[in-house]
Here is the input.
Amino acid sequence: MVLWALTLAVAGCSSGSADTASTETPAADSSIVETPSTEAPSADTEAASAPSTATSGAADADSSTSVEPLRPYTSSPSTTEPDYSTSAWISRKSMSDSNIELTWSSTDGAVEYQIHRLPRAVDDQPEVAEMTAENLIHTATDAGQWTDDGVLAGTPYWYGVRSLAADGTLVAHGWHRAAAVTDEEPPTEVGALAAVVGDDGVLVTWTQPDENYELHGYRVLRGVDGQEPELISNTWKVSQTSFLDDDPPAGQVTYQIVAFDFHWNESAPADVVIDLS
Here is the structure.
């Protein structure tokens, strides 16, 4: 019912409910990817115990972080932006220097969706009150897609979606930043990847890679005894540079971290192997 969305040519993203201001999640940081009430899908933010045994890694990583370690999904992970059933979600996925292709999600109880556009610096997220009749550019009665051709190449914009009930009250809203640009270069690999064993499991840490445009988040993959690593978690927060595997398998375990940007370009994977036999 709810789709991720807003195929934009770049940049960041945000969403939030009507009574809660959007905050970065996938954001209170520079990534500006935001969720309605949790930072990233199924991320358990319980703190990890201090690691006790160091194991093989590309380099020693500083396991200290201002963000609690991400934990594995409790359900099948998605390789695209998560769905949310209680907030308006607006996003992008295309690359163009002449238009911005928008997609927005449906919201329970909404009968009208109003799309707004504000030219503004990328780090200056508007308030919901700034979605006015003057910057309304499109309306719809359901979730959908629409291409904005009235943009200038390279100019940063904020796009907002307001979900309205039949009586006109605001059900939910969301913001997403974008610019009409073309970007096909992937980020560089993450650095200082390391894995340590602690009381709560295996803590994998890394450092943020150099970015060609803007980072969006990381994918965490895991393989056992030479098997091809499989996706076990995503994070939509650039500052989320640690992952706690609280139920690691036995054997030679390979953890793989892939960084991706706002155009879904992916970095080469960085690997670390730990012996859990």
